[in-house]
Write a structure and sequence with these properties.
The complex is a heterotrimer.
Chain A lengths: L4 H6 L3 H7 L1 H29 L11 H7 L2 H34 L5 H13 L2 H12 L5 H10 L11 H26 L2 H9 L4 H30 L2 H6 L8 H9 L5 H28 L21 H27 L16 H9 L1 H33 L6 H9 L6 H13 L9 H25 L3 H9 L4 H30 L15 H11 L2 H26 L9
Helix pairs in contact in A: 3-14, 3-18, 3-19, 4-14, 5-9, 5-11, 5-15, 6-9, 6-15, 7-9, 7-15, 9-11, 9-15, 10-11, 11-14, 13-14, 14-19, 15-24, 16-17, 16-24, 17-18, 17-20, 17-22, 20-22, 21-22, 22-24, 23-24
Chain B lengths: L1 H20 L4 H10 L5 E5 L4 H14 L5 E5 L2 H14 L6 E4 L2 H9 L16 H4 L9 E5 L2 E6 L24 E4 L5 H14 L1 H9 L3 E3 L2 H9 L5 E5 H9 L4 E4 L5 E2 L2 E6 L6 H11 L2 H9 L23 E2 L3 H19 L2
Parallel strand pairs in B: 1-2, 1-3, 6-7, 6-8, 10-12
Antiparallel strand pairs in B: 3-11, 4-11, 5-8, 5-9
Helix pairs in contact in B: 1-3, 2-11, 7-13, 8-13
Chain C lengths: L3 E10 L2 E11 L4 E5 L6 H9 L6 E6 L2 E5 L2 E2 L7 E4 L11 H11 L4 H14 L15 H13 L5 E5 L7 H18 L3 E5 L2 H7 L2 E6 L2 E6 L1 H6 L4 H6 L4 E8 L2 E4 L2 E4 L9 E6 L5 E3 L9 E12 L4 E7 L4 E6 L10 E6 L5 E3 L1
Parallel strand pairs in C: 3-9, 3-10, 7-8, 8-9
Antiparallel strand pairs in C: 1-2, 1-4, 4-5, 5-6, 10-11, 12-13, 12-15, 13-14, 15-21, 16-20, 17-18, 17-20, 18-19
Helix pairs in contact in C: 2-3, 2-4, 3-4
The chains are: A mainly alpha, B alpha/beta, C alpha+beta.
């Protein structure tokens, strides 16, 4: 009698398990091993290093003393929390009203606003940061030039090199996550809830505040938390702004530990609180949501009716346009202007127009061209690897093909709690140094990017697999096809969309990734983000803008192809 | 930036004429032959701007046809970090390194990260500079870049210009100064040591009170002033002269205490994947061609056989401030820490 | 031996017996329903027959060959069965024709044969005109028929149906019951049909197995199941009924307010349970002249007019309540004094 492993899984007989589960267990072991290498090893190493004396010594607390022994270092930690909080509040203020207006009201130009904000997803934070430096540099920034020209006052109107400037750039760089998640929640919310309030005499805004907003609150809180975690770990924006603003934050301090003399152990010790904060907040969120008995918005909530804003609709539209201007339109416009200008401060004019910067970055600057290829290549490789890994695991977990699938699922999601720069330090400690010695290879970048964005891939995959009724596969089996036939003929074709949208969701941030890359690139594996950061310190914003625009163009082209294949709504299925 | 085009043209014409100008030395020829089976040279540098580094590399590859050159330009601390990281990781990927801080090389040396190699071409070096070469034979001077003030003439009238380094503490310059962070920029680090020696902690406190804009590289401050974002910066006078030639509204001041002179140094990395290419590039940095290129950019040449260009002060005739390797090693970390504590970053 | 045999079949999840000691034998061509409330184990039984689940005790034999036992199971794809799923599980990435032809292609049939047989099958389920449509373009009923065609076209040894009508709306469901019956009569494929809807089971099945708590309560034809339920569960689950409890006393069984001779009952337990269907009871205003042993006097305590029938609640002074169904013209007011009778053969002893 033949025995199929998958069937036998259900048989709890010891003998059956012993005889047929071996190959399947190997698959499990293989996946577990891959995740252990990608996720467990770097973090374990980080924790170990933080308690290890430099130069391979024994157990010690000295690293923690070195990391926190200085008021300045503790100040940076405190500053980081304040900055994260400010960023999160701003991001919520930008995202939630706009999401509400775009999904539940008759605000004019809803599609336009959504498409424009999609640009915020494509713009890497450091390019937004450069855009804002050009806009709001205290003296030469366009806004201040205009201010001085209009009023004759020398004092700048806005100064990007300040705490509020830092928060502004962080906020406009990170609010998109909240926008997309909250939009999705609003779209699932049934209008009947609002109708019930309307019938009792509540106007559109009262309804929004009393009914719609509270119902979406779990999603708002969850995405705000996510934004907080992303912002405290972001490297690019602080690297541009927090040094001139003289506002030290954790990531800058970590970079200092990585400069001479390199103190990985101290850096490890210094990053443990970041890890602690992340895990703590996620646990807190779970408890708070659990206790208050919030029911997360889910499922098809019935008909959705558009709310008529009446004469308020133009005011709401103005607010949405302000968000578009701050987050995408203005920084992108000045970047493009700078890229085509001899000197960016002179603004746009025929005399000032040139293509020399594009010529320079594409043909003269020796590392730009290669960096573009490296960014796109490593981004694509990481996206492919992560999606394959995540899809296999979510299939195994969802179909309960193997015992202890939950462990794999947990490992897949855990990089979510690891700030990029901390992950990079862990990766550096495990894989860059001998005996592994992957420093300066593409492999270490691909592996690090894969790990960093694995949670995105896993959530997308899980949603995709969950949407396929297992009966679809059982129908294949009963008609005479094996498990493999079922995957090939039914599961794979049905997952095509998931696969492609997950791939794009991974590719965009991976091709732009800076936080993880900054410690892992070698001289020949520099990615565009790192080249841009190096350019930024020389203040050659015109060339930086040119190279940044080329990267944006490539990424936008790839995403456009994806959107064309997938339909425009694919972003809404992000989680 | 009209001169950018001019630069590009010069880059294309100059190397050809230079390559014809001089024959390879015997050492160069031997290294050149051996380098041909290697993968080119990777040059970590904070000594020049990206654009200049690209030019030098192009010049090198033209003179030594078939030997590729990859400049990896970053600020001093990034370059230091990268090289130390590679030495410690036992995975050296760069071939040669040059920075504006001689003390970096003492660190590399202490980590056994440098190969003992002094180019033959050093024989033509000016004696005052040759004296700064490592007596153990691990590194040599690859450039000198005198520092002074560069200011924006649209924003500062000639009678207001600062005279002394200590004028930076004058409240008149509130919100107008741009400097590089000594923890990031190698030459700014050296400069901070000299300032500490001259005026002590009070200098930094006074400077901090003036709320200077702090960048990661001296090139950043220079851009700040040329764009009018700030009025005054401490930077390489040569960069200032470049800007003046480009027609930008800037001028130079040499402070009364003397221009600050951070020598740049270069050394071949031990374990370099392309050792012959690395040595060939070291020969190139000490060669007449490189000194001629320096002179063509208004910088001080390293060799006696190349004349100091007009408008550039002859270092043997003006007063200069320098920081010795020993002083740098002894004080650098403390000064940087002091700076960080005072400026809070 | 031909047909399907479930022998002492059992399935345990942790410490819970989802299915226990199930013994069923199906003749070739027979249509059997597994009927029971949700969670009773009927779907678990079906999934064991299909091979998606291995039994923890007992065995399943198909045409005399053991296909499932705790020692091992033949995988579903090697059993030659077909199944219609609750969700239909029509593959959305294939056209109607491709869906139907899938099983034939897996059997490495040549293309012409595949086309011909799939075409004939679509004809049989009246879907020929939709052969090139994708499932998302079909109505629920049409999807249901695609599922039927896909399952039948391979001429399975056994057809399994897992609540196939539960996702359809009421009127469509009624039509599909007869459609399934018609197609079964046409192809005579041995079928096992899982449902919790008794009327579905009664329309379609040759026999019904009523399952409760993992055990088979009764297997019989629909008529027998309805008129002669053997257990309290079956009597209550299939249609509405009045269950009355009595006690054995010297020579007779005493119920609340009346008694019946002991000879009518089997068994020896002190308690006796009987079932009387509401429509087996008759109401009259005057005391009826009848030999019926079951004759009670009481009042109408509640009533509802349902159009085709009256639904009365009859209550005796001693507190016995009975539901009685009467024709529309039999009108009684609340509180009317009435008599209720039932003939002896309508009183069914249950256990």
């Amino acid at each position: 009698m033949t025995t199929d492993p998958q069937i036998a899984t259900h048989a709890r007989s010891f003998r059956t398990r012993l005889s047929v589960l071996q190959p399947v267990r190997l698959v499990w072991l293989g996946l577990a091993l891959a995740l252990a290498l990608l996720v467990v090893a770097p973090i374990a190493m980080l924790v170990i290093k933080s308690f290890t004396a430099a130069g391979g010594g024994g157990f010690t607390f000295d690293n923690y003393i070195a990391a926190y022994g200085r008021a300045r270092h503790v100040q940076a930690l405190w500053n980081t929390l304040i900055m994260g909080l400010g960023t999160t509040v701003l991001a919520v203020l930008l995202a939630v009203p706009t999401a509400w207006a775009c999904t539940r009201t008759n605000m004019p130009g809803r599609t336009l606003v959504r498409i424009a904000l999609f640009g915020a997803f494509l713009m890497p934070p450091y390019l937004t940061g450069v855009g804002w430096i050009l806009l709001a540099g205290p003296n030469a920034g366009f806004i201040n030039q205009a201010w001085t020209a209009l009023t004759g006052l020398d004092d700048p109107l806005v100064n990007i090199f300040s705490f509020s400037g830092l928060v502004l750039v962080m906020g406009v760089s990170t609010f998109f996550t909240i926008f997309i998640l909250v939009s999705a929640a609003f779209e699932l919310l049934s209008s009947e809830m609002e109708d019930a309030a309307n019938i009792l005499g509540a106007g559109p805004f009262t309804t929004a505040f009393k009914i719609t907003l509270p119902m979406a609150m779990p999603t708002i809180l969850g995405s705000a938390l996510l934004t907080f975690l992303v912002s405290i770990a972001l490297y690019g924006v602080p690297a541009l702004i927090s040094i001139p603003a003289r506002y030290p934050v954790v990531v800058i301090q970590l970079a200092e530990f990585f400069s001479f003399p390199i103190r990985i152990e101290v850096a490890a010790a210094y990053s443990i609180p970041l890890l602690g904060i992340t895990i703590g907040l996620l646990l807190l969120q779970r408890r708070v949501l659990g206790r208050k008995g919030y029911t997360a918005v889910g499922g098809k909530g019935g008909e959705r009716r558009i709310i008529d804003l009446g004469r308020w609709k133009w005011a709401v539209f103005a607010y949405a346009m302000l968000v578009v201007l701050l987050s995408v339109a203005m920084p992108l416009l000045v970047l493009l202007m700078a890229a085509f200008s001899h000197t960016w401060v002179d603004g746009f004019s025929i005399d000032n127009f040139t293509l020399e910067h594009f010529h320079y970055v594409l043909f003269e600057h020796s590392s730009s061209q290669k960096a573009l290829l490296t960014s796109v290549g490593t981004g694509a490789a990481a996206a492919t690897l992560a999606i394959s890994l995540a899809l296999s695991i979510s299939y195994i977990v969802q179909r309960r093909l193997l015992p202890y699938g939950g462990v794999l699922a947990f490992l897949c999601m855990s990089p979510f709690v690891i700030p990029g720069i901390v992950l990079a330090i862990g990766f550096y400690a495990v894989y860059a140094l001998p005996p592994v010695g992957l420093y300066g290879t593409y492999i270490i970048l691909v592996l690090a990017f894969t790990t960093r964005f694995l949670p995105i891939a896993y959530t997308t995959s899980t949603n995709g697999v969950r949407a396929i009724n297992p009966e679809m596969e059982e129908a294949v089996r009963i008609l005479g096809g094996g498990q493999f036939t079922a995957i090939r003929k039914v599961v794979a074709p049905l997952l095509k969309r998931t696969l492609a949208s997950g791939w794009i969701l991974m590719f965009v941030p991976a091709a732009q990734e800076l936080s993880t890359a900054v410690f892992l690139v070698g001289p020949h594996t520099r990615v565009v983000s790192v080249v841009l950061l190096d350019m930024s310190e020389e203040g050659t914003f015109e060339r930086l803008a040119a190279l940044g625009s080329v990267l944006l163009l490539i990424i936008a082209a790839i995403v456009l192809i994806g959107v064309k294949l997938l339909g425009r709504d694919f972003m809404l299925r992000r989680t | 930036m009209k001169t950018l085009k001019a630069l590009v043209i010069t880059t294309m014409i100059l190397p050809a004429s230079l390559a014809q100008a001089t024959e390879m030395t015997g050492t160069e020829r031997t290294l050149y032959t051996a380098a041909q089976s290697e993968n080119g040279v990777t040059w970590y540098t904070s000594q020049l701007t990206t654009e200049q580094a690209e030019e030098v590399c192009a010049l090198f590859s033209t003179r030594f046809e078939g030997i590729a050159c990859y400049p990896v330009r970053a600020n001093g601390s990034s370059t230091l970090q990268r090289v130390v990281q590679e030495i410690q990781a036992g995975a050296v990927q760069g071939d040669i390194v040059s920075t504006n801080s001689v003390s970096d090389f003492e660190e590399f040396k202490a980590l056994s990260g440098l190969a003992q190699y002094m180019p033959d071409n050093l024989s033509g070096m000016q004696p005052s500079l040759a004296a700064l070469n490592d007596s153990d034979g691990y590194y040599f001077v690859s450039g000198v870049s005198p520092f002074g003030f560069v200011y924006n003439t649209d924003l500062v009238s000639p009678d207001e210009v600062p005279r002394s380094w200590n004028d930076l503490t004058d409240p008149r310059w509130m919100n107008q100064i741009a400097i590089a962070h000594p923890g990031f920029s190698g030459s700014a680090g050296q400069w901070a040591i000299a300032m500490d020696r001259l005026y002590g902690r009070a200098f930094f406190e006074g400077l901090a009170a003036n709320e200077p804009q702090i960048g990661r590289s001296i090139a950043d401050g220079y851009t700040m002033v040329t764009t009018g974002e700030r009025s005054l910066t401490v930077t390489s006078l040569a960069l200032g002269r470049d800007a003046m030639r480009d027609g930008k509204p800037v001028d130079l001041v040499v402070p009364d205490e003397g221009m600050f002179l951070p020598p740049s140094a270069a050394g071949v990395l031990a374990g370099s994947p392309n050792p012959n290419s690395a040595r060939l590039f070291a020969e190139f940095l000490a060669s007449t061609e490189f000194s001629e290129w320096l002179a063509s950019k208004g910088r001080n040449p390293l060799r006696t056989d190349v004349a100091t260009p007009e408008g550039t002060p002859d270092l043997n005739q003006v007063s200069v401030l320098t920081v010795s390797v020993a002083e740098s090693l002894a004080n650098q970390q403390d000064v940087v820490e002091m700076f960080r504590d005072i400026f809070g970053i | 031996m031909q047909g399907l045999v479930l022998k002492d079949l059992g399935r345990r999840f942790g410490t819970v017996d989802a299915v226990k000691d199930v013994n069923i034998t199906l003749q070739p061509g027979e249509f059997l329903s597994l009927l029971g409330p949700s969670g009773c184990g009927k779907t678990t039984t079906l999934r064991m027959i299909a091979g998606f689940l291995a039994p923890t005790s007992g065995s399943i034999l198909l045409d005399g060959v053991e296909v499932s036992s705790p020692r091992g199971s033949i995988p579903p794809e090697k059993r030659g069965m077909s199944m219609i799923f609750q969700s239909y599980a029509i593959w959305p990435n294939m056209t109607v024709l491709e869906n139907v032809a899938f099983g034939l292609k897996l059997r490495k049939m040549d293309k012409a044969d595949v086309r011909r047989r799939a075409g004939e099958m679509l004809e049989a389920v009246r879907l020929s005109h939709l052969a090139d449509r994708y499932p998302s373009e079909l109505s629920g009923g049409q999807q249901q028929r695609v599922a039927l065609a896909r399952a039948l076209v391979i001429r399975p040894k056994l057809l399994l149906l897992d609540e196939p009508l539960s996702n359809l709306d009421a009127s469509l469901r009624e039509d599909m019951r007869f459609e399934i019956k018609r197609i079964h009569d046409e192809f005579r494929i041995t079928s096992v049909y899982v449902t919790h809807d008794q009327s579905e089971a009664m329309v379609t099945s040759d026999r019904i197995a009523v399952i409760n708590h993992g055990k088979v309560e009764q297997i019989d034809t629909p008529y027998e199941i309805y008129t002669r339920p053997t257990t309290r569960f079956v009597a209550g689950f299939i249609g509405r009924t009045n269950q009355i409890t009595g006690t054995r006393r010297a020579g007779q069984v005493n119920f609340t307010g009346f008694a019946l001779p002991l000879s009518l009952f089997t068994g020896t337990e002190p308690e006796v349970f009987v079932s009387i269907r509401p429509q087996s009871l008759h109401l009259s205003a005057a005391e009826p002249v009848t030999d019926d042993l079951f004759k009670l006097r009481g009042k109408i305590s509640a009533r509802a007019f349902l159009g085709e029938t009256w639904d009365y609640v009859f209550r005796t002074d001693s507190g016995l309540e009975l539901r009685i169904v009467a024709r529309p013209h039999q009108i009684y007011q609340l509180g009317d004094d009435v008599w209720a009778t039932a003939s002896q053969d309508q009183i069914v002893q249950i256990h």
